[in-house]
Design a protein that fits this description.
This protein is mostly helical. The chain contains 6 helices and no strands.
Length: 164
């Protein structure tokens, strides 16, 4: 089926809107986190029920390639949970500034375009010596991410921001 992930994608977008709506409608950390944790539990239980609490089983198995409904709900549950945790750590208690992700978020479009342009060039990518071993591929991808984070830090330090 050519559009089998469309409905699941729409659910992911809708649940992202719900997360943003919670930020707009509730002022206290307790209210926001309570609602996010409720939605994390709800989407997690529905996802678990759909997949029979296993990756390969159930009515709708968790499948990233097909963007199954159980996968979309599972990632949404994880997102709600992480949003609640990071909100408490970053915004409520100010234990962490959000760096280096804050720098990347300030220039996300520029980093995306830069990645598209440079994704097959050195030092972001190279031909691995051993394609059966994932260590080199992992190292290549981690070094690419670190390089983009360094670029975003330099851009942030020089107050260079690109937005649409």
């Amino acid at each position: 089926l050519p559009h089998q992930g469309t409905q699941s994608g729409m659910w992911s977008v809708y649940l992202g809107v719900v997360a943003g709506y919670i930020i707009l409608c509730y002022n206290s950390t307790r209210q926001r986190c309570t609602h996010w944790l409720f939605w994390a539990l709800l989407t997690g239980v529905i996802s678990g029920s759909l997949c029979g609490w296993s990756q390969e089983g159930g009515l709708i198995p968790v499948n990233k390639q097909l963007w199954s409904l159980s996968f979309a709900l599972l990632t949404s549950a994880s997102g709600f949970l992480l949003l609640a945790i990071l909100f408490v750590i970053v915004d409520h208690f100010n234990w962490w500034s959000g760096s280096p992700f804050r720098y990347a978020g300030m220039n996300a479009i520029l980093l995306y375009i830069g990645h598209i342009i440079t994704r097959h060039t050195f030092p972001w990518s190279w031909k691995p010596y051993n394609v059966t071993d994932h260590k080199e591929l992992f190292l290549m991808n981690v070094s690419g991410v670190v390089l983009w984070l360094l670029i975003s830090k330099v851009l942030h330090s020089n107050e260079i921001f690109f937005s649409v």
